[in-house]
Structures are given as structure tokens and as C-alpha cells.
Amino acid sequence: MTRLRTNRSLIAGSALLLACLVPATLTWIWRSGRSPLIDIAHRYAPISFSHPLGTDPFGRDIASYVLTGAFNSTVIAVIAVTLATVIGTALGLVAAYGGVRGKAVMSTADLGLAFPPILIAAMLVTAQGASATGEILAIALFGIPAQIRITRQAAHSILVLDYIAAARMAGLNSIDTILRHVLPNIAPILIVHASTSLALALLSEAGLSYLGLGAPPPQPDLGRTLASYQIHIFDHPLLVAIPGVTVMVLVLGFNLLGDGLRDLLERPFNRLKGQPS
């Protein structure tokens, strides 16, 4: 409990994420995921009680529009990271056992690192058109190679320990060894990597949608919001600042959360490997 109370990164990251995602989730639920209605008669309305951040060039409430976009962007990032974590962890465990299959997995992972998410998304858009599914697949495919490498390294450090050899001598097969001994012990490092990967995934999502490679309208997201508002950077700078600051807060929050989780979980993992903490 003492370490948790003094973990400033974890506290700050959680506070930033809660401050942004709680109102974003409530707004999404309140509006049933729909974009705010266009109201040309009230375009560029100033800050007021009914419009806490004013309205945009189409008369939409900026606060509702950006918060809904933040929720959508975060959901896409979470799904992509979850997909990359599950697939990358499974392949990383295969690679940790070595052999022909392990070498094939690592060779494929090295090849995957050569393809940036923008190129993958461009190919998917060409094949099936712009969609949230293509965006999720592009971000996930980009994250899988790094997940494979981290899982392989962490799992290998466990597989060489004496109690794993004893478990094998007792007749425990590879699947049971992974489920009982490897996965529970490498879970801390996988959790930390997933939390920090969310920051990169969110940035990738914003960049892809900014370029028009993400989910098409009318569903808002942060990247397309920035792209549509950027022409007003000089006459209405608040339009650009609000989604930009939202992206910054979310990315910073996930990064701080990952740092805090690393500080909280790395000592038990090091003790398990017999390393000084």
C-alpha cells in the first residue's frame, strides 16, 4: 500500500485518464454514440451553459463532439492493443520454445517491423475502404511484432529456471507449463507493455484518421476532428486546441499509467528471476 500511495506516475496517469474518459463515456452513453446534431443557426456560438466549449462551424456542441470522438478513438485503440496482445503473446510463447516454429515466428516478426501502420492501413483501405475495422487491424498488425519479442524474452527468462525443469521432469506438458507457470509470472510485464502500447495506438489512430484512413463519418474521432478544424487555427484556435489537448491528455495519461505500473510490478518480476530489485 505504501508503494501504491507513493507511485506518483500511477496516480497522475489514472487521474488524467479518469478526467478525460469518464465524461467521454457518459457523453457517449447519453448520446447513444451519435454525433451532435448540426445546427447552422448556432454556428460559432460562444461558451455558455448549454455549450460549455461553444459550437463548431456546423453548430455542433464542441464538448460533446470531442468527448464522443475521444471515446471512439480510445475504444479503437483498446481493441487493437487487446488483439495485438493476445496474438503476439501466443506467438511469442511459441518463439520462446525455439525450434523451427520459433525461428519462423521471429523471422515473421522481424519482417512485420518493416511495415509502418500507415502503409498497412493504406493497403487495407485500398482493399476494403476506410473503416474502423481496417484501422484496428492496421494498428494491431503493427503492434504484434513488438509483442512477440517482449513475450519471447520474458517467457524465455522463466523457462530456464530450475522449477520449470522440475515441472517437466514431473511430466507436465508444454501447455500446462505455460498456463500454470509461465503466463502468471510474465503477466506483469505484459500488462505494463499493453498500457504503454495504448498511448502509441491512440497516436496511430489519430494519425490514421487524420489522413482519412480511419472510420468514415458521421462517427467522430479525434484525428478527423483535428483535420476538419485545422483550417480555423487562426480565426478560431480553440477549435484546434480542444481535440489536440484531448489527444495529449490521453497519451500522457497512458504513458504515466504504464510507467507507474512498471514501477509497481517490476520488483516482483525481478525477484522471481533472482535479480536485485
UniProtKB/TrEMBL annotation:
Work out whether the entry's keyword set contains Endoplasmic reticulum: no
Main localisation: membrane
Give the GO biological process terms: transmembrane transport
Q: Does the keyword Ribonucleoprotein apply?
A: no
Q: Where is the ABC transmembrane type-1 domain?
A: 70-258
Where along the sequence do coiled-coil regions lie? Answer: none
What UniProt keywords apply to this chain's record, in alphabetical order?
Cell membrane, Membrane, Transmembrane, Transmembrane helix, Transport
Which residue ranges traverse the bilayer? 75-97, 118-144, 150-170, 182-203, 238-257
Which Pfam families does the UniProt record give?
Answer: BPD_transp_1
Naming one, the record's GO cellular component terms include:
plasma membrane
- SUPFAM superfamilies per UniProt: MetI-like
The superkingdom listed in its UniProt entry is: Bacteria
Membrane topology is: Multi-pass membrane protein
Q: Which PROSITE patterns match?
A: ABC_TM1, PROKAR_LIPOPROTEIN
Location of this chain's protein in the cell:
Cell membrane
Give the family, as the similarity comment puts it. Belongs to the binding-protein-dependent transport system permease family.
Protein name, UniProt field: ABC transporter permease
